[in-house]
Design brief:
- The complex is a heterodimer of chains A (654) and B (141).
- Chain A is 67% helix and 1% strand.
- A two-stranded antiparallel sheet of chain A has the order 1-2.
- Chain A has 32 helices and 2 strands.
- The longest helix of chain A is centred in the last third of the chain and has 79 residues.
- In chain A, α5 packs across α12.
- The N and C termini of chain A lie far apart (106 Å).
- By secondary structure, chain B is α+β, with helices and mostly antiparallel strands.
- In chain B, α3 runs antiparallel to α4.
- The longest helix of chain B has 22 residues.
- Classes of the chains: A mainly alpha (654), B alpha+beta (141).
- Chains A and B meet through α15 and α16 of A and α3 of B.
């Protein structure tokens, strides 16, 4: 159990570890297999039986875990604010803030089982709106599980021990809930699955009087897995609150407005000041949406009794564009590894809070962290983004989230590729082939591959190269990988250019090209028909419409030179084209590597440039096909002329 | 390298004062207090319109056998006083200026916090961190 809850790893029992351990004890005592999942999956466990009397609370906690698992999912179930409370009597847990609150709570011994702190979003009321009705407040939330559970529990504990009081304190969660609610619900929802912690939230809510309960709830609500991760519900709630102050989500909340808003939370000014310092990432005196969510999350966590960290937890950091995807990833993983995360979170938290006056348990800090997630992470999952990107790609929209590419899996990539191909053109087989290769590669993310690909197309279209490069960078990017991100855009460029040149070279080169190729495929397919004779020899797969002799070769970046060689080899006849293409590719590739770096900062610009690139790509592809056609015509004419010449020659000799 | 850093409000009461732990704080507090006279003297001597960065930096206020006291004033008449140990490798003027600049930045960050009322004692942890960096390496990180 110790190992499961992470205490062994940590070397100590943080709050979350403690709760997990209790839960596991209950699980084990019930005869269930002891696994990490059992914490979440096994519900309604009988309270762990401990010899010591003080374990009542523990058992309650454990019970709460099981019961809460339903409701509280979001709240970091494991983080047991209540334990703090329960311990008030024992004096073990030293939540300075919590303790005063808990003492207040005992007054409500059997308060109705507090409805799970559920869904702060449901009770988005202004802070403390519901302070006054304990049972009513919760009604918003689906008490269901925890509720009933708690009441019996409370009854059982009617000893009025601190624990009971603690638990009962939950019932008057309304005040907390109001404020906390938003904290709770979001976290609970997510945590529901994870930990019964939600139950804890409830308990904490109950025990603590309005103020205290609010804090507790907050703590509980913070998802356990990542103490500072913001759950989706929470985030949604924060966003809604942000909108009430500042309708424009991209705008700022001025300091004065934020001050008023956060003052309503009734936290001491010093703490609010600290929260502000933590969350105002760019120190501009105003809060962006991300900063606001982080601040709100910190307040919630603080109200729940978690200590404020010394520095902003990673999950709360306003996402720089690049980090968005990672942030999202962080959110999700948070829950998954809750057992592990609590262990990790507390350690991080505790060190950070040394100076805090309150002796909030480390968990508090960590819980806060879990509750508050990067604002960014919440973004769409990579896969979603990919799909979107794919579509965007078609429209030349650019990868929406540089980060998402990271999340996007290769499968998405392939999907995108397919989509791209279909969307873009009735890409021929070559595209498909290329894409297949691309799909395989995307995870690789090598900017290099692009250069190779780029060289091909680049060569052909020097002029377009720039445009294509930007486009390709954007379009290919849809593929989740960031590194590929840049590549893809190049590929697209190349794809267009490749259509003329030789797609197979590119296809072979990189998966990224795949995307590009898709774009190029349509063009290439057109050309393929025309240039089949010429190109087919070289590139079996890609119908390199290298016809694009006419196409302006892309400015061959130095990098693509490598690829160029490859493509050239294949396309012997089209050396020129290849060079052009490679040049283009090189340019694209060259541009791509740099793209990822700046992506974080100029996502939008990149996306715009991607769109432009895509458009350019399509234009170039068309141009390519036309030129190929012309080339064919010209060749035919030449042939006919030669024939005539031959025929006439005998006469000339005469 | 600085052994004492002080932020003095416009009305000449300290907003924040911190000394290196090993030193005798009272002595430094006294030195800072006496240096305020020098600061006022320099400010009045400057005359009007000193919005210049150079003018913000007052330079060496007065040297003692062991320490040197440097001064810096902001546009809102908030004064920064820094006491550095003379025994250290003589800090170049530029270094002192950069230290003050960083101190000024930290002070601005504190000001940006809407929860901070100007005139209150500075209890921000962030500000403390920056100042601690000043002590440790002479330059805030």
């Amino acid at each position: 159990i110790m190992e499961l809850c992470g205490a062994t790893r940590l070397g100590y029992f943080g709050r979350s570890q403690f709760y997990i351990a209790l839960k596991l004890v209950a699980v084990a005592q019930s005869g269930f297999p002891l696994r990490v999942e059992s914490i979440n999956t096994v519900k309604d466990l009988p309270l762990p039986r401990f010899v010591a009397s003080k374990n009542e609370q523990e058992s309650r906690h454990a019970a709460s875990y099981s019961s809460d698992s339903e409701n509280q999912g979001s709240y970091s179930g494991v983080i047991p604010p209540p334990p703090g409370r329960g311990q008030v009597k024992k004096g073990s847990i030293s939540h300075d803030t919590v303790q005063p609150r808990t003492t207040a709570d005992p007054q409500e011994p059997a308060s109705p089982v507090v409805s799970p702190q559920q869904s702060p979003p449901t009770s988005p009321h202004t802070w403390r709106k519901h302070n006054r009705h304990p049972s009513g407040g919760n009604s918003e939330r689906p008490l269901a599980g925890p509720g009933p559970f708690w009441s019996p529990f409370g009854e059982a504990q009617s000893g009025g021990s601190a624990g009971d009081a603690v638990w009962s304190g939950h019932s008057p969660p309304p005040p907390q809930e109001n404020w906390v609610s938003f904290a709770d619900t979001p976290p609970t929802s997510t945590l529901l699955t994870m930990h019964p912690a939600s139950a804890q939230d409830q308990t904490t809510v109950r025990t603590v009087a309005s103020a205290t309960t609010a804090n507790e709830i907050r703590r509980q609500s913070s998802s356990y897995d990542d103490p500072w991760k913001i759950t989706d519900e929470q985030r949604q709630y924060y966003v809604n609150q942000f909108k009430t102050i500042q309708p424009d989500l991209n705008g700022f909340i001025p300091g004065s407005a934020a001050k008023e808003f956060f003052t309503k939370s009734k936290l001491p000014i010093l703490e609010l000041s600290h929260i502000w310092e933590l969350s105002d990432f760019d120190k501009d005196g105003a809060l962006t949406l991300d900063e606001f969510c982080a601040a709100f999350h910190l307040v919630v966590a603080r109200k729940n009794g978690y200590d404020l960290p010394e520095k902003l937890p990673e999950s709360l950091m306003p996402k720089l564009i690049d980090l968005e995807d990672s942030a999202d990833v962080g959110d999700q993983p948070g829950e998954v590894g809750y057992s592990g995360s609590p262990a990790e979170a507390p350690p991080s938290k505790s060190p950070s809070m040394p100076s805090l006056n309150q002796t909030w348990p480390e968990l508090n800090q960590s819980s806060e962290d879990t509750a508050i997630v990067h604002p960014v992470p919440i973004r769409m999952t990579p896969s979603k983004i990919h799909m979107q990107e794919m579509e965007l790609k078609r429209t030349g929209s650019d990868h929406t989230n540089p980060t998402s590419p990271l999340l996007v899996k290769p499968s998405d990539l392939s999907e995108e590729n397919k989509i791209n191909s279909s969307v873009k053109f009735a890409s021929g087989n070559t595209v498909g082939q290329q894409q297949a290769g691309v799909v395989a590669h995307p995870p690789a993310v090598p900017p290099r591959p692009q250069p190779s690909q780029a060289p091909g197309p680049v060569v052909h279209r020097p002029v377009d190269a720039d445009g294509l490069i930007t486009h390709t960078s954007t379009s290919p990017q849809q593929i989740p990988e960031q590194p590929n991100f840049a590549d893809f855009s190049q590929f697209e460029v190349f794809a267009a250019s490749n259509v003329n040149e030789e797609q197979d070279d590119e296809a072979e080169k990189h998966p990224e090209v795949l995307l590009v190729e898709k774009a190029s495929d349509p063009a290439s397919s057109l050309r393929v028909a025309k240039t089949d004779s010429k190109i087919e020899e070289k590139t079996a797969t890609s119908a390199p419409a290298n016809v694009s002799k006419g196409t302006t070769p892309l400015a061959p970046p130095p990098k693509p030179v490598r690829r160029r060689l490859k493509s050239e080899d294949e396309l012997r006849p089209e050396v020129d084209e290849h060079t052009q293409k490679t040049g283009v590719l090189a340019a694209v590739l060259a541009s791509q590597p740099s793209i990822p770096r700046s992506i974080g900062k100029d996502k939008k610009a990149i996306q715009a440039s991607i769109r432009r690139n895509k458009e350019t790509n399509t234009v170039l592809a068309r141009l390519n096909s036309e030129l190929q056609q012309q080339l064919k015509d010209v060749l035919e004419e030449r042939i006919s002329l030669e024939v005539q010449l031959e025929q006439l020659r005998p006469f000339s000799h005469l | 390298m600085a052994v004492c850093v002080a932020v003095i409000a416009k009305e000449n009461y300290p907003l924040y004062i911190r000394s290196a732990p090993t030193e005798n704080e009272l002595k430094f507090h006294y030195m800072v207090h006496t240096s305020l006279d020098v600061v006022d003297e320099k400010i009045s001597a400057m005359g009007k319109a000193l919005v210049d960065q150079r003018e913000l930096y007052l330079g060496l206020l007065y040297p003692t056998e062991d320490y040197k006291v440097y001064g810096y004033v902001t546009n809102s008449k908030v004064k920064f006083v820094m006491v550095v140990d003379s025994s250290n490798t003589a800090l170049r003027d530029n270094e002192i200026r950069s230290m003050f600049r960083k101190l000024h930045n930290s002070y601005t960050d504190v000001m940006c916090n809407p929860f901070y009322n100007p005139g209150d004692r500075i209890q921000s942890r962030w500000a403390l961190f920056a100042v601690h960096a000043l002590f440790l390496q002479g330059l805030p990180c």
